[in-house]
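Record type: ASSEMBLY
Status: queued
Input:
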Amino acid sequence: MNLPYQIDPGYIGLGFVLLFLLLILTFTAILRDKGRRSLGEAGLRKIPAFKKLWRTMNYSVESGKRLHLTLGRAGIGGEHSTSSLVGLSILKSVAQFVSMGDKSPITTSGEGTLMILSQDTTRSAYSSSGVAEKFDQADGQLSGLTPFSYASGTLPIIYDQQTSGTIMVGHFGSEAALIADASENTDCMTLAGSDDLSAQAILVATANEPLIGEELYAAGAYMQIGLTHTASVRAQDVIRWILVIVILVGAALKLTGVF
Amino acid sequence: MSIANLTPIDLVGALVGIFFTLSIFSYALGDNALFRLAIHIFIGVASGYIVVVTWFNVIWPKLILPVLEWENTTNDNLIVLVPLLLSLLLLTKLVPRLTTLGSPVMAFLVGIGVATAIGGAVIGTLFPQVIASINLFDFPTWDQNAGLFWILVIESSFILLGTLTALIYFHFGAHSHNDEPPQRTGWIELIARIGKFFIAITFGALFAGVLMAALTAFVERWNFILTTFLSVF
Amino acid sequence: MAGLLCDNCGAINSPGNQVCQHCQASLEDHLTQPEPISSDGDVPGQSQKFNSTGHLGFPVDDHLGSEGYDSGHKQSPLAELGDVIPIETVVEEISKPKPYSLKIRVTDAQRTNIRLLEKLTRTEAGSRPTPKTSNITTQHIIRILIMLFLILAISWPIFFDPPHLPLPAADSNVSSFSQHILSLPLDAPVLLAFDYEPGYASELDTSTTAVLDQLMSRNAYLTLVSTSTSGAIQAERAISIAEVKAARIYEAPTDYVNLGYIPGGATGLIGLSTGIRSTFPLSINGDQVWQSPALQDVNTPNDFNLVIVITDSSATARTWVEQVRPNLINTPLLMITSAQVEPLIRPYFDSDPAQVDGLIVGLAGSVGYETFTGRIKEASNLWGSFSMSVVAAAGLILFGGMVSAILAANKQGQDYPGGE
Amino acid sequence: MVKRTLLIAVTITTGLVILMGYFINLPALVSVRKIFLNWAIILAAVALLIGLINLIVVHARKIINKEPGSHYSLVLLVSLMVTAVVGIVSGPTSKMSQWIFNNIQIPIETSLMALLAVVLISAAIRFTYRRPTSFSLIFIFTTLIIMLGTVSNPWLNVSWLSELRLWITRVPVVGGARGILFGVVLGTIATGLRVLMGADRPYED
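Status: finished
Output:
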């Protein structure tokens, strides 16, 4: 892009991030004023996958079957960390809910730091529900360290644990199809989302409750995890339209030869 | 591959390869013992090699060697010890009683991770893709070939339409009237529908790509089995 | 479980909390301001929430809220209690004479909690269904049929006269890839990144072999790196295959050097693009390589004459383009990718100026490259079988898809327990 | 409380140093950032070791408790030890390591990939059954065009198919993929910012 005067793209980037931050803070403040009625799905479009997730969580408590969460293979120190963080917040919410049942959720992951955090998250969810003694370290395990060994190591857990549902949220590649398929074979609900586009494409076809693209990142809002989660979904909506306008205006200027 | 120039070790290797290939293929019949045996060996071998790689690539040259060579280097500060210390603290996360010690290292890693994710997303993906979307309308053939020009404009507009509608498809905000489930405003819903069309095409194309990658593996595996069998028997 | 239950999110908070630690919803208002039950059984102010959600404020599907819990009603230890105190009628009768009553305050949520408790005690006492053993199902039969069909399609060109299948021609991506290698000076240092999982070896080995063969013909000094843990050995394997095909001997560290694994994904690549020497103080075999004549001038990837990335992942490909490419001022970046990456990486080749200077995609690209260079015929030998397998797969999807679309028109069923 | 504050401070400081490095070119920042990144790379490798230890512990526990399937765990541990010992003793790129890689890991992993073909075909067949919508029809239709447009076909040699394939990957797919990527970017930034705000604290135990 040849602008008439050159602005360092770094400053634009910084401004963009600050704007985003400001929007999240503003919406948090607005939502706090409105109170809890604004939390959860109120004011958000329906995403069937999350409804099914609630239902499966209820079913899991009733039937005494375990839920299985698999958080992908991205470390928390890398560029795919945010998808893993979404997985962890779903785990927190699930663990708190399921802590009143008699079976704890089982978590698998494909990376060391993620595995540790999955154990920490389950443990803290249990202690906040006053059932800390229920926590077992084997509830958060690592099933393999390379993409395919992670996926294939997850299969026996799905077959042996007789789970009521598999929640796949995190960074996966094409190997995710093996996990989703095994879960479908055992007639489980399979909720699946990844930040990788190829993985999303195959999960759309193999999982019965796929999360497409950005829907994955809205999990916090739909799972009623907290105000900031709902606020950030609102901020994403605003930024979305800013992007649309920037691109449209830019394209129009380009076409008319302004720059 | 011809049997004549196969050494016994290679032959054993080929037979081992066939055994594992068939064990994995047996999964099509459902979860079974052979398949489980193969994947457990696989997980073991893959992890075992990770021990080797991390030792030779990281632990020895980056954690132990700098400390051993500390006296020799002119670098007389303590900074070479920090990675070792951080690594040891991170390892305490494995011991439930000591887990608190490792939390600051986790916090450090989380900080690095989210910053890399945000920075990469803004500088690495968002900016280049926005500029690419705008540059779609940068035509060198401005007044040279009218027919081609309009085809290019239409094609570029189609790409742009796909980008914007797919982005709008994700719009979350919705309103609910009279206890009905929340719904987006009519015109957003309409744009989202167009977006969904583009998303379906994109996913279809990506799915085809993965499937063809998988089919290549299938062809190569079957070819391997056939040629080995044909050369042995 | 001592503590305050948050109506909004179900989290349990320590007593004395004003707001939920979990969702920040206020905990006090329904405790300090008890709202009596109205005549229609609704709690004013909370009615909307409990209508749309179930116990503990979680959205519950209707049939689980009623039918799901009632199915165990008769057998449960608490079932009799339900008969003794028919909650609904009590509420109704007491409510009728006067609009508000404070005697029995049973909300839907509490009722659901009782049912939940019943359900829990029931499942605790009762026997669990025995785990389902895996039998051969229709799914398995379909799979075996798919497999057999594919095997037939693949074997056909091997056993019988292959039908005439024209080889794909080299497109501009492939030809410019080859041009860049041909224009290398002799003995030039080349950086090769083996960023793929062994699972994609079948797809990427053929192109890698053909490219390595051409590089060896220019006597290029190869520097091998990888962001995948098995990349180091994969690179070694690729060199040994290419040695056989090119009838050359390539020895480390005189002809090539294997630097090994870069941990940390994108973080590692940022490190590599700023200083390759600090990322790899030693080669994977522990050799000091940076003093060798071929590498003594190399400090960043830009000091190589060519950078070639072999990858199966669009994220890795993008990271190379976005993090490393900006620092490559006069060094071309070439890519060998799996077919699954193509739709996401092609725009980088098509863009002007191109961010990827040459691209070989999947087996088709590999065949094109082989045709263009006219040296090795590895991928071309597989082309017939591959084409047949793709046509067979497409046929299966088309035929099977039509059958299942027809079946779908006749049936709407339950997919999994707890589902609709 | 002090501990929480400390942890949040660590995250925000490292996060800001790395993030600012993307946008502002300050020499001091650049050098601190380089050191941090170098540590992160080393810690990423340590994370692999942590994963490895967990893997060993989980399977060793299965063997000790004689849980069902513990013989598989034994197999796993033995193959892990053998590979590690061979690799460390004979070298990471030795002939023996290569033999294990070429004849065990490559066949198993490429076979899993091959298995994926069967899984994906059956999923594609079921797709229109499970979700009989226009979305699935467009999806399947595109898949078929891309596949048939890539390969040579003995029955009908149709050049328009490969041209259509090329057009699809050059036009609608580029558009759609960009839109989805933008969405992912928005989600990533929001998730990341929540952590940098201290609102989400995944590192707390």
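Annotation: Chain D touches chain A through 59 residues (CB under 8 Å).
Annotation: Chain D has seven helices and no strands.
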